[in-house]
Amino acid sequence: MLIDSYDRVVDYLRISVTERCNFRCQYCMPQKPFSWVPQENLLSFEELFEFVKVAIDEGVNKVRITGGEPLLRNDLDIFIKMIYDYKPTIDLSMTTNGYLLKDMAQKLKDTGLKRINVSIDSLKPEVAQHIAQKDVLKEVLEGVDEAQRVGLKVKVNMVPMRGVNDNEIFDVLEYAKQRGMSIRFIEYMENAYAAASLKGLKANEVLEMLATRYNFVDEGFEKASPSRYYKMEDGYRFGIIEPYGDDFCKECNRIRLTAEGYLIPCLYFDEAMSIADAVKKGDIKTAALVLKEVVKNKPEKNRWGSQEEDEISQRAFYETGG
Ligand code: SAM
Ligand code: SF4
Q1: For the CA of 68, the nearest atom of ligand 2
Q2: 95-138 pLDDT, tens digit each
């Protein structure tokens, strides 16, 4: 079992399989990066899988595939199948912008993927286009329909932004609710790459808005979830992810692996260690040691609450996978 210095069990690995993306979301990658990671620096799926096996053997029981946009990487279904075949009981999920989902959903389901989170920030084509800087809504919604049709469990992620999509909080919630999908509102997190003018809504502002229309009770955090859940009178539950909040890190159970093989102990922390050399050499012992070291170095809390202007995270969301 992997236990960090604050007695938290680490059993959740998020893998960013590519930092590339077909969207240019204002809060994540508004500009195409100056350079992409060279193709030869990316770990192959076989190499990534060598590490996944080590992580599973050490106690990881939840793996999420993310990016960049994970569906841009060829043969993703084969990678998913490798993980599934190694441990069929693993909680195997993916976070995607949904644009390529329609054609991939069945394959992903067949190879062992259980759940997906799809980012839907607006249901208005022109607003979705403004946020992603591409006309995306039709494909995304068709992707969600297909994912549900093939039996994947779908959750919606929305980042509410002032003057951009804050007037759509009810609409996106109702869209999810009517389709039996849970929704989580994610507070916008500042980072060096996001568009400078963006202002996110804080959790309390989202809650105040929702309280004008619904009655709900605070159910607190689900075990190890970064999201606080609220239950409406009819039983529907929505979540709010508040990384600036006091309780956000208390139950953190996750580490992140980038497509180049950097193992990151905390989303905000820039410290990371590489497992690339070890897996390329097939040196599983060293990969396991790096994993244990990264878990040991997991900080107690992220720095979002205390950051100075010049301390803003330089690590891009599209590298770490969010
Ligand atoms: N491309 C996929 C997607 O958009 O769902 C997966 C990668 S994306 C980096 C993962 C999650 O991070 C998305 O739900 C996205 O909304 C969220 N995200 C990206 N930048 C963010 C930011 N600055 N603040 C809050 N959430 C952010
Ligand atoms: Fe791409 Fe996802 Fe970042 Fe949007 S949030 S730019 S879809 S990686």
Answers
A1: 8
A2: 999 999 999 999 999 999 999 999 999 999 999 999 999 999 99
Residue 146 carries which side chain, given as an amino acid letter? E
Render pLDDT for 204-259 as a digit per residue (tens, 0 to 9).
999 999 999 999 999 988 777 778 999 999 999 999 998 776 666 777 889 999 99
Beta bridge partners of 61: none
Residue 320: closest CA among 279, 265, 277 = 265
Q: Give SS3 for 114.
A: coil
Residues with CB under 6 A from ligand 1: 21, 27-28, 66-67, 69, 95-97, 119, 157, 159, 186, 188-189, 191, 194, 317-318, 321-322
d(CA 144, CA 127): 18
CA–CA gap between residue 149 and residue 108 (Å, rounded): 13
Q: Which two tokens stand for residue 105?
A: 């959903």
Output the residue whose Cα is nearest ligand 1's atom 11: 322
CA distances from 82 to 13, 34, 73, 258 (A): 15, 33, 15, 18
Domain ranges in the chain are 12-320
Around ligand 2, the residues with Cβ closer than 6 Å are 21, 23-25, 28-29, 67-69, 97, 119, 317-318
Q: Are 207 and 40 in contact (CB under 8 A)?
A: no
Amino acid 315 reads: R
What gap in Å lies between CA 310 and CA 267, rounded to an integer?
17
Among protein residues, the one whose CA lies closest to atom 4 of ligand 1: 97
Question: Using the 8-state DSSP alphabet, how is residue 283 labeled?
Answer: -
Residue-wise burial string across 26-37, b where 16 or more C-beta atoms lie within 10 A, e elsewhere: bbbbbeeeeeeb
* Closest atom of ligand 2 relative to the 21 alpha carbon: 1
Which ligand places an atom closest to the C-alpha of 155?
1
CATH class of this structure's domain 12-320: alpha beta
Beta carbons within 10 angstroms of residue 25's beta carbon: 21
